[in-house]
Each structure stands twice: as structure tokens, then as C-alpha cells.
Specification:
The protein is an alpha/beta fold. Helices cover about 40% and strands about 15% of the residues. The strands form four sheets. Strands 1-2-3-4-5-7-10-13 form an eight-stranded parallel barrel, surrounded by four helices. It has a three-stranded mixed β-sheet with strand order 6-8-9, with helices on one face. A hairpin with a 4-residue loop joins strand 14 and strand 15. The longest helix has 23 residues, at about 195-215. It binds 4-nitrophenyl beta-D-glucopyranoside.
Length: about 475
């Protein structure tokens, strides 16, 4: 099936949420101001060789000091919502668990300003900046981390829950477990393959406990959600099936169904005994939620190889239990991340969720593209960024969302990643995802052409 062109009238339902997304460590800077302490990403980015060019989030786009002007840009864009995350080490900077009022006040001011502007804040509670003191105790391999994060969620819900009615527990637990504990590319970069399942289980547990904490302490009836980056692959059907089991159903099934699939235990036999799953955990994880966020960027191409499935149970691997699967070069146009562009992958993913988990409303919580953006001064003497590739990408992916809506998917929102250029994790500042360009030497903000394009798109499509 193909996602474009769209041959029917606009499908976006009333109250569809258009917006953009950001996360704390990627934009804020001010790493040691107002009592903030290190997160595992501060430690990781300051470890030589981990992040491209040795970039760190120490300054980032200095949103901590530019937030008022930056939120004016958010208002100018005209979206209904703004998705941002709370920096955990600003809120609970020390192992004693005491809340830091300066940190809470920062986010409280942001919430108030957004509400002033008529923009709905969507608060992500965990976007990867685990306090280093929890990292020192094993991070997500320590079951206690889930309980500590629930305590943190309760504090945020108490402080902001009178004004914020939409909380996301976790952003992309796959990255926070498989890329971070299985592989080496994300903090803490442990690289111990199969332990990723244990980290994933503790993240699942944190999701359930955080849902309970927010529900207990926030206002009337908070909207709860979680955001996953489902591995979207094509190619050999056995390979696609196994990667879906390992990377996707490890999160989808416990969260939405209250079980781990039996096939997952079978596939991981010999590398993971799942003894970390305790009685009652699955009931805790299986909390009612209001929507499932999906972050979609690209589609992979996979095939079975001649290698054995388990060379070494402790080998670094982002896909433990899949070492016999090859990731092939993808066809077609690629982005500055070298990710291929496949809007139909977004359509397929939305329809797959609609068919297999029909009860849960969906939100495209991130979608966007890194481009080799360049600032040029046009004849008008004004600085421009002509990012036609980004405009085409957004256009085609929004068309895929429209097509999925038309075909019965219950999609409630679309968030472009990202409002601003920012710290792109292991790729530092070289890769730019923003619709607003940031000059990192002056902190000047320059609206890219895609900003004007998305602004008009929202104005024309919101109801
Ligand atoms: C997501 N991968 O990260 C995050 O939610 C954002 O913070 C990030 O900036 C954005 O996508 C763009 O990368 C991912 O390697 C990072 O599969 C890496 C992967 C997937 C998502």
C-alpha cells in the first residue's frame, strides 16, 4: 500500500493535537545551575569517545535561559500542544530523594507560560536523564530504580498536576534498555547484550508505578501515556517477526495486555531466564492508559544470516537473541542520520497497531528528519535555511497519518521532532532535526523554511 497522494479530504478529527517535541537534556544546558546534578548522560557525554566530536549537553541550546523567547516561537508556530520532558536531576538532585524547589519552579513557569498561550503541555517524565546516583546503583538493572522514579513522578504530579493534565511516563524504553545496556551507543553504554531484557522489565515496571503515582497525586483525571519507538522492519518474514518480538512486544504486550509473550521466553532461552519478573509485576505494568505514543523515523531491511543465534551470552548487542539476523542497506533516499525515508512505514505501523491493539488510541509522538541544513543570507539580507527535504518529509509523513486515519486508525495527535536543533545524543550537535535552526556559537535562533511550512499546514488542517 502507498501513503500518497491523498485522494480524499482532510481526515484529521476535531481536537487532533498538532505540536512539536523536545527533551530536557537535549535543549536545556545549565547543567550545573540551580542545584542540578549529573545524569547518566552527563557522565556518558563527558567520557571521551562516546559522543561525536566530544559534544556534551552542558550548554546545548541554553533553553534554560532562553525559554521565554523560545516559547514565543512555539506560540508563533500555532500548534495545540508542546511536548517536553522534565529533567530528573533538576527535581531530585541528591540520593536522599529531597525535591529541589528551583527545579520545580523552572517547569512550573514553562507550564504557566504555555497555558497563557493556550497551548496544552504534554509532560514526559523520563527522557533518559537518569540521575547519576541511581546509575551508580546499577541504573535500570536495579529494580529499586523503578520505585525511585515513581517517587519522582509523584513529586512532579503534586507540583504540576493542578495545571498539566497529560503525562507520559517514559520515552522510548527500547533505547533506554537495548541501546544502553545491551549495546554501547547510549548511556550508560554497558554493552552486555541480554541484560537489556532485565533493564526493559524494570522500565516496564517503572511505567506502571509512575502511572499509579501520577494518578494518585495529579488533578482530576490525568491523561496517561507512554511513548515507544517500535522497530519497523521489512524483508525476511522470520527476521521481521523475531525483531518485532524482541524489540516491540517486550513493551507492547506487558503494557497493553499484561503478559510477556511465551514466544519471547522461548526465543531468549539460554541468554535470559526472566527470573527478575516477580509475582504481581505484570498486573502493575498493565495500567490503563489513555494513548500510546509512537516515534517513527525510518524503516529497516532485515534478512536471516548463516550465523548462530547466540554466539556469546554476554556479547554487546542491541538485539540480543537476534545475532543471526542481518540489517541490510536500505533502498531509496536517506537522511543526514543515514536513515531511509519511508512514509509508508508510518502508515503500516499505525495500521498494525490498529489491527492488533485496537483498544488503544495512538499519537505520533515524534516524527522528523535530520538534514545538512545551511544558513544562507538571501538577497533580502535576511538569514534563511531552505530545508526542502524536511518539508517533503513532513508532508509525506503527515499524508501517511491522514491515510491511516482514513483507513480507521484512531490517531489523536502528531508531534514533529523537533522544535529546535538540539543535542542529538551520540551524534552531538552535528545532526539537526529542528524546524528552528540554532547557531551554537551565538545561540541565535533562525526559523527554517519548514517552520513556515508547518505553521501553515497546522493552520489549514486544525479544526
Ligand atoms: C529518538 N535508534 O531517539 C528520541 O526520542 C529523541 O530524543 C531523538 O532526538 C530522536 O529520536 C532522533 O534520533 C532515537 O538508534 C535515537 O534506533 C536512536 C534511535 C532511535 C530513536
Amino acid at each position: 500500500p502507498t501513503a500518497s497522494p491523498v485522494a480524499f479530504p482532510t481526515a484529521f478529527p476535531p481536537n487532533f493535537m498538532f505540536g512539536t517535541a523536545t527533551s530536557a537534556y537535549q535543549i536545556e544546558g545549565a547543567a550545573h545551575e540551580d542545584c542540578r546534578t549529573d545524569s547518566i548522560w552527563d557522565t556518558f557525554s563527558h567520557t571521551p569517545g562516546k559522543v561525536l566530536h566530544g559534544d556534551t549537553g552542558d550548554v546545548a541550546i541554553d533553553f534554560y535561559h532562553h525559554w521565554e523567547d523560545d516559547l514565543k516561537l512555539v506560540r508563533e508556530l500555532g500548534g495545540d500542544t508542546f511536548r517536553f520532558s522534565i529533567g530528573v536531576p533538576r527535581i531530585i538532585p541528591t540520593p536522599d530523594g529531597k525535591p529541589n524547589q528551583q527545579g520545580l519552579d523552572f517547569y512550573s513557569r514553562i507550564v504557566d507560560k504555555l497555558l497563557d498561550y493556550g497551548i496544552k503541555p504534554i509532560v514526559t517524565l523520563y527522557h533518559w536523564d537518569l540521575p547519576q546516583y541511581l546509575g551508580d546503583q546499577g541504573g535500570w538493572l536495579n529494580r529499586d530504580t523503578a520505585y525511585r522514579m515513581a517517587d519522582y513522578a509523584a513529586i512532579v504530579a503534586k507540583e504540576l498536576g493542578d495545571r498539566v493534565d497529560s503525562f507520559t511516563t517514559l520515552n522510548e524504553p527500547w533505547c533506554a534498555s537495548f541501546l544502553s545496556y545491551g549495546g554501547t551507543e547510549h548511556a550508560p553504554g554497558l554493552g552486555q547484550g541480554p541484560v537489556a531484557f532485565e533493564a526493559a522489565h524494570h522500565l516496564n515496571l517503572a511505567h506502571g508505578l509512575m502511572c499509579q503515582a501520577v494518578r494518585a497525586y495529579a488533578g482530576a483525571k490525568p491523561q496517561l501515556s507512554v511513548v515507544l519507538n517500535l522497530q519497523e522492519n521489512r524483508g525476511d518474514s522470520d527476521a521481521v517477526h523475531r525483531l518485532d518480538l524482541i524489540g516491540n512486544r517486550t513493551f507492547l504486550d506487558p503494557m497493553l495486555r499484561g503478559y510477556y509473550p511465551a514466544e519471547l521466553f522461548a526465543v531468549t532461552q539460554g541468554i535470559c531466564d526472566w527470573s527478575f519478573v516477580r509475582d504481581g509485576d505484570l498486573q502493575l505494568i498493565h495500567q490503563p492508559i489513555d494513548w500510546m505514543g509512537l516515534n517513527y523515523y525510518s524503516t529497516g531491511l532485515v534478512a536471516m544470516s548463516d550465523r548462530p543465534q547466540f554466539p556469546q551470552s554476554t556479547a554487546a548487542s542491541v538485539n540480543p537473541g537476534a545475532s543471526d539476523i542481518d540489517h541490510l542497506p536500505t533502498p531509496g533516499e536517506h537522511t543526514a542520520m543515514d536513515w531511509n525515508i519511508d512514509p509508508n512505514g508510518l502508515y503500516r505501523q499505525l495500521m498494525r497497531m490498529t489491527n492488533e491493539y485496537p483498544e488503544i488510541p495512538l499519537v505520533v509522538a515524534e516524527n522528523g528528519i535530520a538534514c545538512w541544513d545551511a544558513v544562507i543570507t538571501d538577497a533580502d539580507g535576511v538569514k534563511h535555511v531552505h530545508d526542502e527535504q524536511r518539508i517533503a518529509y513532513l508532508h509525506d509523513h503527515l499524508a501517511a497519518v491522514e491515510r491511516a486515519l482514513h483507513d480507521g486508525a484512531d490517531v489523536r495527535g502528531y508531534f514533529q521532532w523537533s522544535m529546535f536543533d538540539n543535542f542529538e545524543w551520540a551524534f552531538g550537535y552535528e545532526r539537526r532535526f529542528g524546524i528552528v535552526y540554532v547557531d551554537y556559537s551565538t545561540q541565535e535562533r533562525i526559523r527554517k523554511d519548514s517552520f513556515a511550512w508547518f505553521r501553515r499546514y497546522i493552520a489549514e488542517h486544525r479544526s
